[in-house]
Amino acid sequence: xxxxxxxxxxxxxxxxxxxxxxxxxxxxxxxxxxxxxxxxxxxxxxxxxxxxxxxxxxxxxxxxxxxxxxxxxxxxxxxxxxxxxxxxxxxxxxxxxxxxxxxxxxxxxxxxxxxxxxxxxxxxxxxxxxxxxxxxxxxxxxxxxxxxxxxxxxxxxxxxxxxxxxxxxxxxxxxxxxxxxxxxxxxxxxxxxxxxxxxxxxxxxxxxxxxxxxxxxxxxxxxxxxxxxxxxxxxxxxxxxxxxxxxxxxxxxxxxxxxxxxxxxxxxxxxxxxxxxxxxxxxxxxxxxxxxxxxxxxxxxxxxxxxxxxxxxxxxxxxxxxxxxxxxxxxxxxxxxxxxxxxxxxxxxxxxxxxxxxxxxxxxxxxxxxxxxxxxxxxxxxxxxxxxxxxxxxxxxxxxxxxxxxxxxxxxxxxxxxxxxxxxxxx
Length: 427
Ligand code: PLP
What we know:
Helix content is 38%, strand content 14%. It has 427 residues and is α/β, with parallel strands linked by helices.
C-alpha cells in the first residue's frame, strides 16, 4: 500500500502537534512506522488519506459498536444540529438518556454526564473519597482509568505501550494515595486492606481489562473484590468505560452478577461523540454538587449533540434483541478461526476474549495480569500488525490493547481477515 499522503500529513502534523498526534497510542510508536491518517469511516471500513481501505477492529477504541457512521445516528445528529450545538442549560435529552440507563442498568439510581472516560473515573474517585472520608484507593497494574494524575501509576494502554507507566509530573504526594495490586491477585488486595485499615475509600477496576490487552477476571476475582469492599467499608468502582453497553446493556455488572457501588462509562455511551458518565445509588450520588458537597462540573457536560448520538446508539442496541448475541458470536468465530490458523503455523499464542473484546497474545502461557501480558512476544505482534495493515486490516497498534468488534463486521469481513492471516509468516 502507498502511504504518501499520510506520511506528508504526519510530517506536517509533527510540526504543530506534540508527536504529531492528539493521543499517544495513535502514533504507532510501539509498532513502528508512520500513523495512518484517516479521512472517512463507514460501517466496518475506514478510508485513509491515500484512499486505502481497511476493515476496522479498533472502532475508535470502542465507541463505534454499531460500526462507523450508522445512518440513523448520523440522521439524529444532523437533526439535533439544526436545533443548536450546545445550550449550557439543562435539556430534555439529558433526562431521556439518564432514564434509559437507570431503567436498564443494575444498581444505578442516578447518572452524571461528563465529556470523557478520564473525567468519569477521576470524578468517581473524588466522590468515593468524599463519601467515605478516606484518601487512598486501590488500582490494578495494567489497568487504565484515564490520564488523571492519580491513575498514572503502573497504568496500562498508551502508558504501558511506551514503557512509561508512571508519568513524570505526578507528584509523590498524589502517588502515595494510589495503592497497587496485581490483577487477579486477591491476596495482594487483602494485604493492602490489612496494612491500610480504615484508610481505603475505594477499589477501581476494569471488570474485564482491555488496557493490557484483553484480560479476564479469574477465580471469582470481582466477587471477592465486592466482599473485601463490604468487609472494609470501601466502595467498589467498576470502570466500565470499555465494557459498559458492550458486554451487555448492563455491562460487566450484569454479565458477572456483581454489584458495583459506582460505575464509570465512556466510549459506547456517546455513540462516537465525546461523552463519559459516572453512576451509582442515590445514597452516594446525592453527595454530588449541587445537591451535595462533592464538586464536579463541565461546560459541555450533557452536550445535546453528544446526548443525541449516545441516546440513538443505545436505543438502537436496545431495539435489537439479538445484538449482543450477534457481536459476541462474530468475536467467538474470529477467536476460534484465528486460533486454528496460528496453530496450523505452530505460532505460540493465547487469545483472550470476552463478549466483543479480544486480544491475540503471542505467548505460550495464559495471560491473566500485566506481567504476563508484558512477557508476550510484542515484536511478533508488531510484525503481525504491519502485515495485516498492509493487507487492509486495521488492528490496534499495540499488543497492550484490545480489539473492539462492531456489529458492522459480518461474514465477508471475517473471511477477508482470515484470508490475510492465513498468509502471515512468522519472521
Ligand atoms: N477507563 C478505561 C477502562 C479506558 O479504556 C479509558 C480509555 O481508553 C478511560 C478510562 C479513559 O477514557 P477517555 O480516553 O475517554 O478519557
